[in-house]
Amino acid sequence: MDMIGPVYARLVLRELERRGFDPAPLFAGLSIGREELLRGGDIAMEDFLHILRAGDRLLGERQLGFILGRNMHVLAMGPVGVAISSAPNLREGLQVLESFARLHATYVDIGAHSTLHGMTVTILYQHDTGDLERFHTETAMVLLQQYIETLLGGPITDARFRLAVPEPDNRAEYSDALHGRISFGAAANEVDIPHRCLDLPSPYYHSELWRQAQMTLSQALKDQTRTEETPYKQHIIGLMRTSEPPLPELGDVAYDLNVSQRTLNRRLQAENTSFRQLKSEAMARWAKQYLRETEHSVEAIAETLGYKDTANFRRAFRKSEGCSPIEYRHSMSPGDS
C-alpha cells in the first residue's frame, strides 16, 4: 500500500477549520479520523486523495492548491526539505529535488534539466491523481516559487509557468498566485527558471546542515537499491542534466554521496553503467546544444566543456554522434532538436 506523510492533509484540515467548515466530510468512509490524522504518522494514499477531494469540494471556487502552496514551507518535505533549505544555491537545491523528491511523495517526480538560458523544472505524476492533478500542480508551483523567492529575496517575475490544464475562467487567480508569465494547455507542467537565479549564493546556506542532509539522502539512495533497479544511475543522470559545464567529476559526486570513488564505481557497475559513460553522454548533449543554439566556435565549445584539446573533443563527438561537430551544426536547421 502506498503511503504518504500527513502534512498536506493536515494543512487541508487546518484551512477548512479556519474558515468555519465542518471537517467531517474529510474523513467520511476513512479508517482514520481527525485526531488520528493530527497525531499519527504516514497515511494511505487513498485516504490522502480522499481528503484532498473532499477539501476541494468544500472550498468550492477557492483554489485550495494555491492556499496550501502559500501556507506551506519546504521543510514540510522532511529530509528533502532540510537539504534544499540549507543548499549553497538554488541549482544544488533543485538537484536535490530532482533526485530525491519521491522520497517525500512517491506519486510525484520532479524532473529538471539545465539549458543555455537557465533550468526547466517539470512536475511528473507517477500515481493517477485524476481530477486532483490541477490541485497538485497549483500547490507544487506556488511552493517552488516560494522557495525560489525566499532565496532571492524578491519576486521572480521573469520565470515562465506552463500548465497542462485548459485555460480556466478564473485566470486572474493564477496571475495573482504565480508571478511570472503563465500559459495553459501545455504538454507538461513546467516552469522555466532564468539563469541569473541558479548560482547566486543562498543566504540560508549552512555548511554543516547541508553536509548532514547529504549524508541522510545518500543513505536513502542506498536504501532505494532494494526497490529500484538503477537508483545511482538515475541520480547521476539527473545531476548531470541539471549541471552546467564543466560537469562534476567522479570524486566530487562520490564525496557528496558520502562514498568512496571505488564504491560509487562498483554500484554503477552493478547497474550496468559507469560514471565515465554517463558523463560522456551528458557532454554530448551539451555539445549538441551549443552547436545548435550558439555560434560559438568548435574550439570555444571544447574549452567550455572542459576539454584540454579540441582534437579530443572532435574525436569524442564523432564517436558519440557519428559525425564531426561542424557536420552536425550544418545538418541542423534552427529549432531542430
Major sheet: order of its strands?
3-4-7-5-6
Please work out how many helical segments DSSP would assign.
17
Low-confidence stretches: none
Tell me, briefly, the overall form: globular
Rg over CA atoms: 22 Å
Number of domains: 3
Helix content: 55-70%
Count all strands and give the number.
Answer: 7
Largest sheet: 5 strands, mixed
Determine the structural class based on helices, strands and strand pairing: alpha+beta
Q: List the helices and strands in order.
A: EHHEHHHHEEHEHEEHHHHHHHHH
pLDDT averaged over residues: 92
Please indicate the percent range of residues in DSSP E strands (runs of 2 or more): 5-15%
How far apart lie the N and C ends?
Answer: 40 Å
If you had to describe this structure to a student in words, what would you say it looks like?
The radius of gyration is 22 Å and the shape is globular. The longest helix has 20 residues, at 133-152. A 5-stranded mixed sheet has the order 3-4-7-5-6. Strands 1-2 form a two-stranded antiparallel ribbon. The protein is of the alpha+beta class and 337 residues long. 55% of the residues lie in helices and 10% in strands.
For the structure shown, list the relevant keywords.
single chain; 55% helix; 337 residues; Arc Repressor Mutant, subunit A; alpha+beta; 17 helices; two-stranded antiparallel sheet; 7 strands; 10% strand; five-stranded mixed β-sheet
